[in-house]
Amino acid sequence: MLTELFSYLDSAYDVPGAGLFRFITFRAGMAILISLLISMVFGRQLIDALRRKQIGETVRDLGLEGQMQKKGTPTMGGLIILAAILVPTLLLAKLDNIYIQLLLLTTVWMGLIGFLDDYIKVFKKNKEGLRGIFKVIGQIGLGVIVGAALYLHPDVVMKEELPAQTDVSLHGEESRGIPTFGPAVKSLKTTVPFLKETTFDYADLAVVFGEHAADWAWLVFIPIVLFIVTAVSNGANLTDGLDGLAAGTSAIVAFALAVLAYVSGSVVFASYLDIMYIPNTGELVVFAAAFLGACIGFLWYNTYPAQVFMGDTGSLSIGGIIAVFAIAIRKELLIPILAGIFLVENLSVVLQVAYFKYTKKKYGEGRRIFLMSPLHHHYQKKGYHEAKIVTRFWIVGILLAVFSIITLKLR
């Protein structure tokens, strides 16, 4: 909204400073500031309102240190995150951009699913919340919409750099010519980490359709999108078990995604890093900045000891955002590294349940790999303080984020 307004003021009246809104970096910086302010101001008001309505967390005693002290802490704080993402994005991003539209849809869609789950838990006093099947249906619905849009929308295109021409000087020295990219094309290619000048085309998985594989590639692409959205959103949901863990981890991932979106949407950096250039994805930096500011602002109230919990309203939405964002910039194969914390939390639960069932069937009694799952509870059972666990998970998250970024050169 503000982008169009200030562009008009700049072109029509030459208003000093109005031209700054043409720059993604300026709008991204403004998005962080606005999201931080919304989180801190709106957050305080929401927490007070939740306390007045006695909307508190119900805690099941699992024998964890400090767990019962959390009882009654306001939940549904994910509304703070949603507001701090949506408002700056609507104000500062170009709303005709298909990638921005998909991320806005993801934020609202997953936020509504999480809100329904929290509403049932808090107001209906049903500890189970929204039935798992309905959550999965919601995640599948989003995955279908996102996958179909990325496959069909005419603005979702990519460009690959053409082989560089070399000029020979009078002294016989060769110099590299100006980098040029091919035409914008519809493609389901994605970046393959660690391999130089290598991409993976999802159409290759539709080889059973022979020469028409490209026409039927959506049958492969959309299910993969479904899997990624479901896995990452559930991973974020499982990670939200300690004060500040999910929000801090997501803030780290958001920063890395902003860097990846910036280089993917820039001709100069795409050429320098020898990666595919994806037009229009640079605008996602504004969204990522709002996402980053929202997570950091939420930490103001969510760090130990937490004054509010994000609930499924926040955890499901941030997981969906990370998944769709990575797919949009063709970096989904980096998710196991970038969102490694979510992956490990997911795997710890899957392994624990599978091993318990296997040993119960084989030996007559279930055995466990971890003292408790998800993984952060395992360390709680071992006697580590909650704040120490969270801080160390953040450090690991930073290492994974940095490693994800340097994979652009580590090939």
Brief summary:
The protein has 411 residues and is mainly α.
Name a few traits of the molecule.
single chain; 411 residues; mainly alpha; two-stranded antiparallel ribbon; two-stranded antiparallel sheet; 59% helix
What does this structure look like?
This protein is mainly α and 411 residues long. The chain has one domain (25-58, 69-164, 176-336). The protein is built from 14 helices and 4 strands. The strands form 2 sheets. A two-stranded antiparallel ribbon has the order 1-2. A two-stranded antiparallel sheet has the order 3-4. Strand 1 and strand 2 form a beta hairpin. Helix 3 runs antiparallel to helix 4 (98-122), helix 6 packs across helix 12 and helix 7 runs parallel beside helix 14. The radius of gyration is 23 Å and the shape is globular. The chain starts with a helix and ends in a 5-residue tail after the last helix. The model has no long low-confidence stretch (mean pLDDT 89).
Query: What is Rg?
Result: 23 Å
Structural class call reads mainly alpha
Number of strands: 4
The largest sheet is: 2 strands, antiparallel
Instruction: Output the strand order for the largest sheet.
Output: 1-2
pLDDT below 50 for ≥5 consecutive residues: which ranges?
A: none
Specify the number of helices.
14
Strand content: under 5%
Coarse shape: globular
What is the end-to-end distance? 40 Å
- How many separate structural domains? 1
* Mean pLDDT over the full residue set: 89
Helix-strand sequence: HHHHHEEEEHHHHHHHHH
